[in-house]
Design goal:
This protein is mostly beta strands. The chain contains 1 helix and 9 strands. It has 2 domains: 136 residues, Beta Barrel (OB fold (Dihydrolipoamide Acetyltransferase, E2P)); 31 residues, no CATH class. Strand 8 and strand 9 form a beta hairpin.
Length: 179
């Protein structure tokens, strides 16, 4: 069975975050992934459609198992578009900055998941990959107060930090030349 359609989920609930690709008991080093929790009926439907849905056993007897879809994040062949949304605008994340989502306090996630149909030695399956994801983060009480102060990590070495892209040749660098 081959799946061709993407899955669009608004207000997704995600968990088991490993955007940094940290190796561990359940994850080889370098594999970036997370899961999207699904309601029971959606889990059944996606599983019937051929997606690799997994299930967490309920904590309380009589409750339904929790469906979730493991989702991979890869920048190798088809890089995803992953965007952090805040009051100050949007920031596109890349493979060097995506790890910040491992510990971010997330308010909302809207995601498009693309299928990858695979076949190895006669075995077939479908793996879920992020195509597009918008992540709205929870902002602290002081974010507005300090939003206009430049980030010192963004200033060039030897630069003043007052220029858009300081190359160290402006007059402001004289204040750093105190012998």
């Amino acid at each position: 069975m081959s799946i061709q359609s993407n899955i669009n989920i608004e207000n997704a609930r995600i968990g088991f975050r490993n955007f940094s690709g940290k190796g561990g008991k359940f994850n080889p080093e370098g594999r970036r992934n997370f899961c999207v929790f699904l309601d029971f009926d959606s889990g059944i439907q996606l599983q019937e459609d051929g997606w690799k849905v997994k299930w967490l056993q309920p904590k309380d007897q009589g409750d339904q198992p929790q469906a979730y879809l493991p989702v991979s994040v890869s920048y190798d062949n088809v890089p995803p578009k992953i965007v952090i949304v805040s009051k100050n605008g949007k920031t596109v994340l890349d493979e060097h900055t995506i790890n910040m989502l491992d510990w971010a306090e997330i308010d909302n996630v809207d995601i498009i998941i693309r299928p990858y149909n695979w076949e190895v030695n006669g075995n077939t399956g479908v793996k879920a990959y992020v195509k597009v994801m918008y992540v709205q983060i929870v902002e602290d009480d002081f974010a507005d107060k300090y939003k206009d102060i430049p980030d010192s990590a963004q200033a060039s070495i030897g630069g003043c930090g007052n220029c858009e892209e300081c190359d160290g040749s402006c007059d402001c660098t004289a204040m750093f030349d105190r012998d």
